[in-house]
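User: These chains co-purify. Model them together.
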Amino acid sequence: MILKVNGRRLRVQAHPMKRLLDVLREDCGLTGAKEGCGEGECGACTVLVDGQPINACLVPLAHARGVQITTIEGLGGRHPLQRAFVEQGGAQCGICTPGMILAAVALGDAPPLDRMRAGLAGNLCRCTGYTAIYRSIRQASRSRAGRRTAGARRPAMRPRGK
Amino acid sequence: MVGAISNRTLLEPRDIGTALRMLRDEGPLVPLAGCTDLYVSLNFGTLGATRFLDLWSLPDLRAIELRGGALSIGALATYTDIIESPLVRRRVPMLVAAAREVGGPQIQNRGTIGGNVANASPAADTLPVLAAAGATVVLVRAGGKRRVPVTAFYTGYRQSVMRPDELVAALEIPRLSGRQWFRKVGTRAAQSISKVVMGAVAHDDRPPSVAFGSVAPTVVRVPGTEAVLGRGESIEEAQRMLLAEIAPIDDLRSTAEYRRRVAANLLALFWRECRRGGSSA
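Assistant: Joint model of the two components:
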């Protein structure tokens, strides 16, 4: 089966009921998505499917056919949210961070606080108390707005390897 | 994941007719769609089944549309589909409220209303809404179809009248007049299973419809309580009747006593906010 991950097409041979999380980590070598709870509570395994956040621990490989998957690796380390999480202390132990950033990507540009809260409700963080995470998302929104004003051409999200 | 994956089989029909024939001829099969409940059981090794039927990609079962006077919601409609549907927002805002409180966005993007109904959990968030709305479950099987009211669908804890060769195709919700109300009480605002969950309609032309989850082995309507409210008796009288009509238990999420108190409080809150001539919320 062909899996479209971060703009690349990867051929994987795995059982159709294998969890997408395990396929990404074991068959694709993409270990950014973590297993926290294994029951859809913590969001550490969050990846984007056609731009929507999902829990990769609850999705069978069969349901990844024909969709675009984005993992944290697909942001290439240069996404404004990634930089903002580093600078604002949005990441501490780091386990929740890949899922948290991808859930934040799905919120789009400059989400108000209530949308941040609702949009990140499926991502648990035991370190930050969340305020540093909200601060990070606000900084990323400002930096993107600043770049737009400055006329920069780089898109907000660019999959690596394409 | 607990348990060997190699002895599992996933049948992947291309259309509903094939799915129903597989269910009839190649069963027993466990249907799966959004997998937000099923994969939890698989991950923890609490599901012994080895043969599964994939419904997720079937066309036709996802539509949200008006049929006759009723709102028909396809079984594969996700909570996100429901939240974003202008039709559901206009006709059944309490269902939108319930869908917003299911898990977080990741769960709402995958979990389906058909799965919530078929999974038959007494704590399911949409079931009190469907019961209060007088909704009907549309069941299909190879060569047949039947309609069962949500209030007659459940026969016991995680038991329903659905047969092994049947699938939930849709939920049909009649037009409702009067104010709708939904409230879920859990440990947190998000990502929690309900301790008590309530859906209700203060009809313009008849006694209210009131339904609760997590206070009995199945979702329950409380007809005695509805009648007391409909006769205009005091809320205290209605609460006394309610406590005779529900049977909550102590479990890992809450206690029976707490659930009784909260259920009675929710009833009073609903009636204060929604009864005709009452103050608006």
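The CA atoms of residues 223 and 254 of chain B lie 25 Å apart.
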